[in-house]
User: Fold this.
Amino acid sequence: MLHYIENSKTQVGKELVLMDIGAEYHGYTADVTRTVPASGKFSPEQRVIYDLVYRAQEAGIAACKANNDFWAPHKAAAEVINKGLTALGIIKNETDKHPYFPHGTSHYLGLDVHDRGTYGPLKAGTVITVEPGIYIPEGSPCDRKWWGIAVRIEDDILITANGPENLSAKAPRKAEEIEKLMIEESAFNQLELPKLD
Ligand SMILES: [Mn+2]
Assistant:
């Protein structure tokens, strides 16, 4: 699902955990999403979908150029997703309408996390998100091995005269980087809470 609001699930098994994280610093916002396998390792099907979203995001980021239309990153990402879903047999034709990528790829970032903007050509100094996703609900008309897989990857991209700059690049994003990070001990294991009297 796009946003899991109830937060009531206590067992995630081998599912993917999608974390959409907003933060503010000196009044300016950020919006970053990472998707990790709860087991520490992507299943083969999860990995295929993850890598497809990753490639779509790379295409979207590459389209974040000054003077490009606001929708250029979305078009680039959607093209990769539609081709990939077709190659996997999840949709029949890459021009088919489908419910697996049900949102736009970008929104403005600034004082608000979904900031106002012109939706005209991209300008140097503007920051937008690039956040393609694929969500395959249970019961979808495709091989059931894909059911229940949902991946979104979101980064914050500064438009510059010299091309895109990924402001959230330090958060690991490649599948192998995420699996490597999942092996590491959690910093929370070292956390000592202050003694309560
Ligand atoms: Mn966002």
Remarks:
- The CA atoms of residues 133 and 182 lie 21 Å apart.
